[in-house]
Design goal:
about 110 residues; alpha+beta; 3 helices
Length: about 110
């Protein structure tokens, strides 16, 4: 998987905005324990469901994209909390638990 840099995300935001698409951006604002992406990681989503960047990978990413689509539609930001305990992580085959907090806002 190609790593996307923040400048790539910002360039894509400008491109999509210029073409008239509505956009939302998700930002990792806090993590506890194990988290696949650090604070400041970005995920840009447009109204058609296209996205660039990453805030977590795996199943959380899909939930964040869905929330971003709702933020675009409703024009209201959201604060998302995701977490899993070490025992829950073990049950589903993950290496360890952790939590991540993600802020999703409309930017167009």
């Amino acid at each position: 998987m190609k790593q996307v840099l923040d400048m790539d995300i910002l360039d894509t935001a400008i491109e999509w905005d210029t073409s008239g698409l509505k956009l939302a951006i998700a930002t990792v604002i806090k993590t506890w324990g194990s988290s696949p992406r650090p604070v400041g990681s970005l995920l840009l989503v447009n109204e058609t469901g296209e996205f660039v960047g990453s805030v977590s990978g795996g199943c959380i990413e899909g939930a964040v994209i869905q929330s971003a689509l709702e933020v675009i539609k409703e024009e209201k930001p959201r604060l998302l909390d995701f977490g899993i305990t070490n025992s829950q992580a073990w049950e589903v085959g993950l290496a360890c638990g952790g939590k991540v907090q993600i802020f999703v806002e409309n930017i167009s």
